[in-house]
């Protein structure tokens, strides 16, 4: 089942990107590009959700709606 988790991405002074989430405690991912950071964040999120399900924590993530906004990053 797909779930929607909001993450915050910021560019650090060192030139790398950092992703965190207020919705999924413990989600921290860092990459050289936004795409790499998103890929790492997705893997970390999967592992955190799996660990939480093993601990019988409640499922509080929202299922993906039929429509939603997604910021598309395009490089030139």
UniProtKB/TrEMBL annotation:
InterPro entries linked to this entry: TTHA1013/TTHA0281-like
Source domain of life: Bacteria
Gene3D superfamilies, A to Z: 3.30.160.250
Protein name: DUF1902 domain-containing protein
């Amino acid at each position: 089942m797909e779930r929607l988790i909001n993450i915050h991405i910021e560019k650090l002074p060192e030139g790398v990107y950092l992703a965190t989430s207020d919705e999924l405690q413990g989600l921290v991912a860092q990459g050289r590009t936004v795409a790499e950071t998103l890929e790492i964040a997705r893997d970390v999120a999967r592992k955190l959700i799996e660990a939480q399900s093993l601990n019988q924590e409640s499922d509080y993530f929202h299922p993906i709606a039929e429509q939603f906004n997604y910021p598309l990053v395009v490089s030139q």
